């Protein structure tokens, strides 16, 4: 393919059924001709992903790379290193690309040599709605609103490479993603901060559309929040200047949020059975596609506790609950 083209890098782990929908959409991109390749990096999948991709193996745009399970950052790096295109478009494996996605990204880069283009992150229409999905959708709308505002100055936590393209030489020159971020969270923020420090041109375009087939369960979401807690500790250690902007430095004012934090940091949590009951109830409620503010507030509390459990795991048993914080007064709503 032409060196002026675009390489789509899709890292994946055990998402065979979703790939069966998302990869054909990438292989059928329009208005890019031969200037497109789709690289799927199979990160140790055991669910038949490779067999599915073998069935698509005759597609001229498709390349498949298989590796042992090393995490998202390593899989993205592997794909970028193997890419033949001048521009690399990173796309999560559950993102359903619009027919002109590749063409829009190429047009946005134009002749620029050091540019990053961020695309929209939305849920596909057919995703089953629940209080969990509504929260994800609200986050994506808020992100798009901020990034679309004229003159908006990006924060480090605006960076998401679930749908973003970057000049390959720029990416490799910065060393790619930090592969020490193995679990869920913050490899995007780390690279984004390094790009910001370099003063790279960043633009957001709502014309680049990819819809997420969000199928995460409530227990999986909770596990991810624990990973984020551990990842925040790692990010603060690598970039101390960001520590004050992380949740690590927040002082909760709501008494229930303080309780959840205390519980998450406790070595022995006497409230653990109650939290387990709440988690089970929310799991059922999400499965039943229930919605409502009370469920969303309960989800927030559970997420708070899971986050601080992750922080405690990262820092070790020396981290103790903040008893003083439990006594501070605060608003009740």
Protein architecture, described:
The protein is α/β, with parallel strands linked by helices and 333 residues long. Helix content is 45%, strand content 17%. The C terminus is likely disordered.
Largest sheet: 8 strands, mixed
Distance between the termini: 57 Å
Instruction: Name the CATH superfamily classification of the largest domain.
Output: Spore Coat Polysaccharide Biosynthesis Protein SpsA, Chain A
- Helical percent range? 40-55%
**CATH C-level label of the largest domain:** Alpha Beta
Number of domains: 2
In the CATH scheme, what's the topology name of the largest domain? Spore Coat Polysaccharide Biosynthesis Protein SpsA, Chain A
* Number of helices in the DSSP assignment: 12
State the total count of DSSP E strands.
8
What fraction of residues sit in β-strands?
15-25%
Kindly report the spatial arrangement of strands forming the biggest sheet: 3-2-1-4-7-6-8-5
The poorly predicted ranges are 318-333
Shape: globular
CATH architecture of the largest domain: Alpha-Beta Complex
Helix and strand pattern = EHEHEHEEHEHEHHEHHHHH
Structural class: alpha/beta
């Amino acid at each position: 393919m032409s060196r002026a083209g675009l390489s789509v890098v899709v890292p994946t782990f055990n998402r065979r059924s979703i790939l069966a929908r998302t990869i054909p959409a990438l292989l059928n991109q329009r208005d890019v001709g031969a200037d497109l390749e789709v690289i799927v990096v199979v990160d140790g999948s055991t669910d038949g992903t490779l067999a599915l991709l073998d069935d698509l193996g005759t597609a001229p745009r498709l390349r498949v790379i298989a590796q042992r399970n090393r995490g998202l950052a390593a899989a993205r790096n592997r794909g970028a290193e193997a890419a033949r295109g001048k521009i690399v478009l990173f796309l999560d494996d559950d993102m359903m690309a619009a027919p002109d996605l590749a063409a829009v990204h190429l047009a946005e880069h134009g002749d620029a040599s050091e540019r990053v283009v961020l695309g929209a992150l939305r849920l596909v229409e057919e995703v089953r709605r629940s209080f969990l999905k509504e929260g994800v959708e609200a986050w994506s709308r808020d992100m798009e609103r901020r990034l679309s505002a004229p003159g908006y100055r990006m924060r480090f936590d605006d960076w998401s490479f679930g749908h973003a393209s970057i000049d390959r030489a720029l990416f490799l020159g910065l060393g790619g993603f930090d592969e020490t971020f193995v679990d869920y969270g913050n490899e995007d923020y780390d690279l984004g901060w390094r790009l910001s420090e370099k003063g790279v041109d960043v633009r957001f375009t709502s014309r680049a559309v990819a819809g997420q087939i969000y199928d995460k369960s409530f227990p999986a979401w909770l596990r991810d929040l624990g990973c984020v807690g551990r990842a925040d500790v790692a990010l603060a250690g690598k970039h101390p200047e960001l520590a004050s902007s992380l949740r690590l430095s927040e002082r909760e004012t709501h008494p229930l949020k303080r309780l959840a934090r205390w519980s998450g940091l406790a070595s022995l949590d006497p409230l653990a059975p109650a939290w387990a009951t709440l988690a089970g109830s929310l799991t059922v409620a999400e499965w039943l596609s229930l919605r409502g503010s009370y469920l969303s507030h309960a989800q927030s509390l559970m997420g708070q506790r899971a986050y601080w459990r992750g922080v405690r795991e990262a820092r070790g048993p020396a981290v103790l609950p903040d008893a003083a914080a439990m006594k501070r007064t605060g608003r009740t709503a």
